[in-house]
Design a protein that fits this description.
Layout (H helix, E strand, L loop, with lengths): L15 H6 L28 E3 L10 H9 L6 E7 L6 E4 L2 E6 L2 E8 L3 E4 L8 E4 L4 E2 L4 E2 L9 H4 L3 H5 L5 H9 L27 E2 L7 H8 L5 H12 L10 H12 L9 H11 L11 H4 L13
Antiparallel strand pairs: 1-2, 2-5, 3-4, 4-5, 5-10, 6-7, 8-9
Helix pairs in contact: 7-8
Length: 309
Amino acid sequence: MEVNCQGCAGCCLDWRPLLEADGESGGRQRTRSVPRDDDGGNEQAFSERVPLGGSYNFVALTRDEVRTFLERGMAAALTPRFWTVEDEREGVEVGDRHVAAVAGRPVFFVGLRKPPKPAAPFDREEATWLPACVFLDPTTLQCRIHGSDRFPDECGTYPEQTLALGAETECERVEARFGGDRLLERDHDEPDGLLFGPQALGAKLFCHPCPDELEGLLDRLERGEPSPTDRAECIAVAAASSPGTVAVSEPHYERALERLESDEPDGDAWIGPAIEEWYRTRPGEAVPDPELAAEIEDRRGAPETPGWD
């Protein structure tokens, strides 16, 4: 694939607030569907779900990637996403809502958080507060972990996955709204590991074993205020999941929680404090220069980005 990413980062942030500022509609958030509880493994038996928690352009991590983030002390970068459903047959009741489920267990993704950051993509002169990937440097609009062994597979196969599914890429949406050439080549190899259908269970689509314990967690997700305990619960379930099944290993779950609750120092200790600082800074009326990232992220030890040639 040949993609012009300089000055864009359209796949790494939620740029819809820019449309609202310009008097345009950002449109309804899109979401991938998940298997129905009663579809017998037929991956065509999909219906639209409404995402609950998580952000636009949600990057779903595999179980092995969740474990890697956990082992390297990067769990602060992760958050879950559940879905609500209107058809009761497609979900399970949790409090006053029905959430998408498989075998009576609520299903969810684990992906990357998007705290608010001041950014000026698409050659805009003034920065705007935008939900941006925890690993996006708002100054260079580059990923801090690109090219490393921590870089998620789903990020590395974008936009090939989207093109393979016959869907519109974020590159094309940016071109349509802001002009310029982003998707320079449409030819692509068929990406491996899409993990749709039953093979996604336990590998990318995780099943929580205790629906009755999720009501408060889902309430906080809906408000956009998941607690560290909420995130830890879902990360531990994902890390303890068994690919191809709805099973959760209790010993792996307990070890994951223990690791999440530990205070061991690590090389990526900047992530949690930086996210908290961005949220504390956001309420201010003035939008700061994106170079504030040097104070909030860089000085805490965030990896540098190479800049553009």
